[in-house]
Q: What sequence folds into this?
């Protein structure tokens, strides 16, 4: 999928509870898959240690002669509290600010106003953002303000991090094709006071869900949407990290962290071999802006999306090999070793691209000149699926795949480009989405519904009966009760069947029950051999 990364930011969506352990015992159905939408996203509530206590992560920074301009990175709004009063107002506010680093992130006052003889005083306190991953940014220009800032250093800053052998790839300058710019990078350790994820609740994972995936400005929507598809099954993500010792307790403070991500080598046909990609804790950031390159750290400060993407960057050649569009099916094959990733066009419901299992190597770019083939749609866990001939037949097939625990993505190709008219309806052209859920005849209403998620973590359909808090939910209370939608700009939204076929051009299906993949006994089957195919004209 070619990606249009001109607009981005924000994040988030929906999902689940505790991940499953890796075992051969089939877990209960309720534990197999995350629910379609979470109504109370889990957060890592780490109690703040007392200020001044031994080992406290809080560091107070005072900047006199400041311009006074502060804002938050990460798309979060800054809640300001202004205090006005007589003498002692600023002194009392400073005392309150210093006593509550877990509540406030910054404070600002006019330096001359701090004089105790001033009868009129005012200052501004800035609350910590709701998104734990948001960080404060300050204008470096000089001025007449004093700014106090609480920074957090949850991990020891003096730890040596060794080269992981992949730096030529993950520190590769990234070329923004749409702007003709080259982003130079450097490596930064999160949580060690270097300006990246210096937050107390930093963790590898908390509650794994598609909500954790928030694409940055790298053009790899196809990759992030597949990560989100797998995150519907938290055990699938944990399986990829299963050789990382003590993963649940990472990142560790007193030693450099290493993460082992197990992927598959598609060049080792006929069977995809496991390959362990070991990466260090450093992540690539833009030298000029300090922004992280690639997928964002999750809103709840989970690092697993960043290290999974870093492993793919190392495995597939570098940022410029994965960051200018690509194929969802190839990413799913590399993540699972399963050959049965299918792309279907909704124009005539044909199979498009190479046949399932064709040897391509560990490259994820979409190739020119891929044709369409008369290949039957795969069965759903052994149950035959009727070759779709119309929209109803296609919904029947997608419903069967959804209930068979097959991860799915969908793509929107060009209508008339991302013009003001097409952007107004909220569905982005030339962009990949995760297909989270398919429901037929919801609550006996005769209406089929599909839940999709934008990998940006924001940006949803704005026109239609079932947009967030739209009229369709009020008219069909039975549908709202059955689906329990969440009305917030989190990137996830419901589509009626007619809307789905209006906006979506192709579907990618991995014909692998993810409750089978998470078992320790799972092994990929041999690749299919290439065979003659009948092309559509």
A:
């Amino acid at each position: 999928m070619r990606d249009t990364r001109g607009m981005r930011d924000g994040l988030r969506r929906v999902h689940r509870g505790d991940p499953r352990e890796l075992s051969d015992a089939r877990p209960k159905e309720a534990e197999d898959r995350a629910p379609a939408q979470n109504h109370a996203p889990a957060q890592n509530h780490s109690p703040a240690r007392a200020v001044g206590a031994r080992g406290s992560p809080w560091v107070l920074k005072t900047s006199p002669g400041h311009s006074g301009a502060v804002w938050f990175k990460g798309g979060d709004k800054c809640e300001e509290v202004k205090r006005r009063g007589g003498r002692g107002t600023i002194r009392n506010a400073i005392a309150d600010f210093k006593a509550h680093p877990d509540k406030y992130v910054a404070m600002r006052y006019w330096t001359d106003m701090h004089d105790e003889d001033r009868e009129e005083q005012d200052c501004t306190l800035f609350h910590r953002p709701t998104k734990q991953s948001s960080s404060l940014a300050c204008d470096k220009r000089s001025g007449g303000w004093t700014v106090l800032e609480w920074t957090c250093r949850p991990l020891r800053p003096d730890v040596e991090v060794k080269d992981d052998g992949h730096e030529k790839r993950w520190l590769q300058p990234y070329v923004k094709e749409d702007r003709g710019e080259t982003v130079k990078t450097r490596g930064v350790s999160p949580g060690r006071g270097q300006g990246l994820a210096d937050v107390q609740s930093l963790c590898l994972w908390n509650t794994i869900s598609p909500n954790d995936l928030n694409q940055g400005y790298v053009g790899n929507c196809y990759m992030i949407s597949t990560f989100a598809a797998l995150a519907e099954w938290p055990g699938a993500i944990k399986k990829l990290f299963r050789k990382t010792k003590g993963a649940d307790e990472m990142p560790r403070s007193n030693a450099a962290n290493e993460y082992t991500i197990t992927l598959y080598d598609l060049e080792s046909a006929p069977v995809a071999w496991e390959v362990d990609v070991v990466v260090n804790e450093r992540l690539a950031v833009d030298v000029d802006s300090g922004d992280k390159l690639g997928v964002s750290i999750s809103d709840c400060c989970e690092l697993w999306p960043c290290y999974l993407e870093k492993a793919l960057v190392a495995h597939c050649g570098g940022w410029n090999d994965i960051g200018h569009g690509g194929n969802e099916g190839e990413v799913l094959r590399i993540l699972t070793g399963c050959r049965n990733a299918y792309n279907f066009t909704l124009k005539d419901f044909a199979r498009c691209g190479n046949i399932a299992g064709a040897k391509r190597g560990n490259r994820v770019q979409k190739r020119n000149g891929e044709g369409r083939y008369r290949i039957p749609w795969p069965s759903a866990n052994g149950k035959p699926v009727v070759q779709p001939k119309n929209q109803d037949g296609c919904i029947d097939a997608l419903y069967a795949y959804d209930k068979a625990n097959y991860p799915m993505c969908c793509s929107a190709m060009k209508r008339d480009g991302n013009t003001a008219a097409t952007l107004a309806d909220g569905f982005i052209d030339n962009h990949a989405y995760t297909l989270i859920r398919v429901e037929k005849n919801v609550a006996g209403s005769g209406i089929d519904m599909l839940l999709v998620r934008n990998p940006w973590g924001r940006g949803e359909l704005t026109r239609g009966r079932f947009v967030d808090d739209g009229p369709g939910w009020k008219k069909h209370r039975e549908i709202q009760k059955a689906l329990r939608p969440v009305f917030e700009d989190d990137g996830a939204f419901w589509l009626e069947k007619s809307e789905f076929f209006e906006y979506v051009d192709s579907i990618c299906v991995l014909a692998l029950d993810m409750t089978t993949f998470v078992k320790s006994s799972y092994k990929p089957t041999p690749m299919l051999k290439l065979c003659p195919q009948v092309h559509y004209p």
Q: What stands out?
A: The chain is about 20% helix and 20% strand. The chain has two domains: 29-44+164-517, 58-152. Residues 2-31, 39-54, 354-359, 528-537 have pLDDT under 50 and may be disordered.
